[in-house]
Structure formats: structure tokens, C-alpha cells
């Protein structure tokens, strides 16, 4: 069976004056410097498969109208041509912008938004998915290790630093970091010292172990019921985590005693502000 094409386009990376011809192609003589035989666009190359329009929120308004027509009519015209070309493709779009907000301020077409928004998948930022970091590390370490012919491993302390980092650049930042570390480090094991200062200066939370945690009697204390069930549960969770950290003095051992993942415990500690001031 023939493999179907998958074409990825970064709408923010292409110059605006070339974007239309790159997406929809052009005929010979369409503009100065055009190929003498013309050129098919990325939509034509994706026929029978899928095209991913990344950073769709950066697409200029004039091209949004043309894209809407292509999607609705399932046909396109190359730049400089009056002939229509039928296309049968799947369109996936992605963005890190709030398209609803862009629609309200007139920077994104409402009709295109609803035409694209058939199945909406929201992916939270990486800082809210720290449990995914080990999986992403495995994937990119294998990918770049194979690409450069270099085998490396992430030290446990380095993993802790990466889990504690807030990742403003999301997966792109993680991907670029790992590629750089694989190429630039000389040792087999990637250590915290190899990380940028902004990452290695964010150790795991330090725990308040100076005093013995209070006994967990919150649910039997009538004064704590006024905040509702959620507040009561948070108080119990807070006390249990403090107790485990005081008893074991290690986040990994505390997570094991609480029968939760290491990353889950870190997230709960952040939410409950269980850290050294």
C-alpha cells in the first residue's frame, strides 16, 4: 500500500509574499523569478493525504479568505492560473494563540475559525504536564541520538531539574535543549551542570521539616467543615504530604509511601505551596 503524504507547513515561517505560491502553487510566468514550468503548491503535494497548518493564527487575513475557499470548495487555483484543480486532503491546523480572541478583535476570520474547528483538541502547556517529560525525553533522546550517531542518557538529578522547570517555550524549548545537549556535551551522562543556569537554579522544592507535622484530624474537627469538602480534602492532603516528607526526607520515598507518582507529588506540592519560602 502506498504511503499517503503528510505535509507540514509553518505559517509563521514563510514570508507573506511567498506564502500563497507555496501553499497553492503557481503557473509559469506568474511572477518574476518563477520557475519556467510552474510549481505545484503544498496543498497539491498533500492530495490523498494530510496537510498540517502549524501556527494558523499567524496567517494573513487575505490568505485566510483563500484558504477558506480551498477548504470549502475542495479545489484550488494556482497563482497566475484560471484553472481549478480538485483536491482531496485532510486539513489539520495548530496554534498557540487564542483564536476566539483573534476573531473578536478582527485578526482571524470567524467563518474560517468555525470551518477549521470541527474537532478541537486542547493541549495544556508542558509545565502542566510534567508527567509527560520522561516520555518526551525518551523520544527526543532516541531521535537525536540516532540522527547524530551519539548515545546519551539523562542523569536522575538532571531529570528532577527538567521536571521543576516551568518551560515557557513548551515542547519546542525541550526539543531544542536536548538536541543541543546531545551535540555539545562530551560525557555519556547529561548532568545538571550541563543545563542552562535558568534550569539548574530551580531545584526540587525544599521541604519544611523543622517541625513535626500536625496529626491528621481535620475531618473530625468541626471548625474545618465550613470551607466545604474541597477545602477539607486539601487540608488532609497537605498534612499527609507534609507528614510523608518529614518522615522520609526525600520526594521519591515520600511519593512511594503515598503511592503516587513522583511528578504527581511535585505538582501537588506546588498547588498546596509546600515548599521553603
What does this structure look like?
The protein contains twelve helices and seven strands. By secondary structure, it is mainly alpha-helical. The protein has three domains: 6-116, P-loop containing nucleotide triphosphate hydrolases (Rossmann fold); 126-200, Orthogonal Bundle (Helicase, Ruva Protein, domain 3); 218-272. The strands form three sheets. The protein has a three-stranded parallel β-sheet with strand order 1-2-5. Strands 3-4 form a two-stranded antiparallel sheet. Helix 11 packs across helix 12. The longest helix is centred in the last third of the chain and has 21 residues, at 228-248. The chain is elongated and about 75 Å long. Residues 1-183 form the Sigma-54 factor interaction domain. Keywords: ATP-binding, Nucleotide-binding, Transcription, Transcription regulation. InterPro entries: AAA_lid_NorR (IPR058031), Homeodomain-like_sf (IPR009057), HTH_TyrR (IPR030828), P-loop_NTPase (IPR027417), Sigma_54_int (IPR002078), Sigma_54_int_dom_CS (IPR025944). It comes from Effusibacillus dendaii.
Number of domains: 3
Distance between the termini: 60 Å
Return the CATH architecture of the largest domain. Answer: 3-Layer(aba) Sandwich
Q: Could you name the CATH homologous superfamily of the largest domain?
A: P-loop containing nucleotide triphosphate hydrolases
Structural class: mainly alpha
Side-by-side strand order of the widest sheet: 1-2-5
**What is the count of β-strands?**
7
Given as residue ranges, the uncertain stretches (5+ residues, pLDDT < 50) are 203-225
Q: Which fold name fills CATH's third level, the topology of the largest domain?
A: Rossmann fold
Principal-axes geometry comes out as elongated
Amino acid at each position: 500500500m502506498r504511503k499517503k503524504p503528510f505535509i507540514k507547513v509553518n505559517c509563521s515561517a514563510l514570508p507573506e509574499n511567498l506564502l500563497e505560491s507555496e501553499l497553492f502553487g503557481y503557473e509559469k510566468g506568474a511572477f518574476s523569478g518563477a520557475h519556467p514550468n510552474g510549481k505545484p503548491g503544498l496543498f497539491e503535494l498533500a492530495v490523498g493525504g494530510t496537510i498540517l497548518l502549524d501556527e494558523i493564527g499567524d496567517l494573513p487575513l487575505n490568505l485566510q479568505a483563500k484558504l477558506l475557499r480551498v477548504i470549502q470548495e475542495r479545489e484550488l487555483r494556482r497563482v497566475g492560473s484560471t484553472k481549478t484543480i480538485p483536491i482531496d486532503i485532510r486539513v489539520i491546523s495548530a496554534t498557540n494563540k487564542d483564536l476566539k480572541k483573534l476573531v473578536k478583535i478582527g485578526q482571524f476570520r470567524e467563518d474560517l475559525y468555525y470551518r477549521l474547528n470541527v474537532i478541537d483538541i486542547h493541549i495544556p502547556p508542558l509545565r502542566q504536564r510534567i508527567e509527560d517529560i520522561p516520555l518526551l525525553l525518551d523520544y527526543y533522546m532516541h531521535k537525536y541520538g540516532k540522527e547524530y550517531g551519539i548515545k546519551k542518557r539523562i542523569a536522575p538529578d538532571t531529570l528532577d531539574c527538567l521536571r521543576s522547570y516551568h518551560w515557557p517555550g513548551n515542547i519546542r524549548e525541550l526539543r531544542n535543549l536536548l538536541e543541543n545537549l546531545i551535540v555539545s556535551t562530551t560525557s555519556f551522562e547529561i548532568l545538571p551542570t550541563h543545563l542552562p543556569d535558568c534550569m539548574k537554579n530551580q531545584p526540587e522544592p525544599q521541604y519544611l521539616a523543622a517541625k513535626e507535622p500536625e496529626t491528621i484530624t481535620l475531618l473530625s474537627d468541626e471548625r474545618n467543615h465550613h470551607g466545604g469538602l474541597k477545602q477539607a480534602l486539601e487540608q488532609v492532603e497537605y498534612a499527609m504530604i507534609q507528614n510523608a516528607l518529614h518522615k522520609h526526607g526525600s520526594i521519591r520515598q515520600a511519593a512511594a509511601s503515598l503511592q503516587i507518582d513522583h511528578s504527581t507529588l511535585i505538582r501537588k506540592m506546588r498547588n498546596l505551596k509546600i515548599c521553603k519560602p
